[in-house]
Amino acid sequence: MVVRNISNSMILGITLKGIRHPLLSVGTLMVFAVVYQYLGNIVVSGAVASGGLVCISYANAYYGLKYRLFNSKSSPDGSHKMYAHYNSGQRGRRYWVAEHDGVIIGGVGIQKQQKSTAGKSGERRTTVAELKRMAVEPEYRRMGVAKALLDTAIEFAKQQGYDVIILDTSEIQQEAMRFYLKCGFEEIGVTRCDTVFPLFSYNLHNFRLRLNKKAQVQVQLFLSTVER
Ligand SMILES: CC(C)(COP(=O)(O)OP(=O)(O)OC[C@H]1O[C@@H](n2cnc3c(N)ncnc32)[C@H](O)[C@@H]1OP(=O)(O)O)[C@@H](O)C(=O)NCCC(=O)NCCS
Predict the structure, then answer these.
(1) What GO molecular-function term can you cite, just one (predicted)?
(2) Residue having the nearest C-alpha atom to atom 48 of ligand 1
(3) Does 54 lie in the same domain as 27?
């Protein structure tokens, strides 16, 4: 559910981004010109060129999401496997699902930060958790499911001694950005990701939630040291 959900919510946006890409627009015009030269029919040539554009753009989005961003290693398919992956006994790592009538309708995970952002956001002296794979089934959105999952994850993170929760969300996931801002996260930066989609790079928005005062003091101390 979770992997499918997040992929689905991104595939349209990524496909549209591809359609607007200048390189593909030029390619489409060239295809149109060649087909028109052979067929002499403006409608058919336009249909062939724009059909090709949509197919290439969709293939780019599908490949990036399925084989790179949400591949079976980073996101074992299906919520139950994801649950097992995150709840494998490693300290500071957990995955929760929300259920309705025995059906999984949402999920979220917490793990210790995998890559260091030291120096980037002033968190090198804190214990940083990453929030992963937040998703709610479309028909259950705007009912507080994600907020309930997030509250559970925050409570767990505090118990585990984390000072900060960070997460990345893409430029395509506008509803997720609004959700995190509403829930007290602050945007701390934007990073460019060029390893997922063959045709183009995209922006990842970096968010942070400080969990206690101690972390805030440490961050401020670190920042003031840098300024001097
Ligand atoms: C982002 C997502 C998890 C939110 O789930 P949700 O269960 O609908 O969120 P909640 O109902 O708990 O929302 C809590 C608050 O966040 C804000 N919010 C949530 N979705 C929003 C949206 N689409 N637009 C504006 N604000 C939104 C609202 O303030 C909302 O409170 P309200 O409904 O009382 O106004 C869900 O839209 C989703 O699964 N999206 C696709 C997957 C995805 O992008 N995941 C993020 C990966 S980083």
Answers:
(1) N-acetyltransferase activity
(2) 169
(3) yes
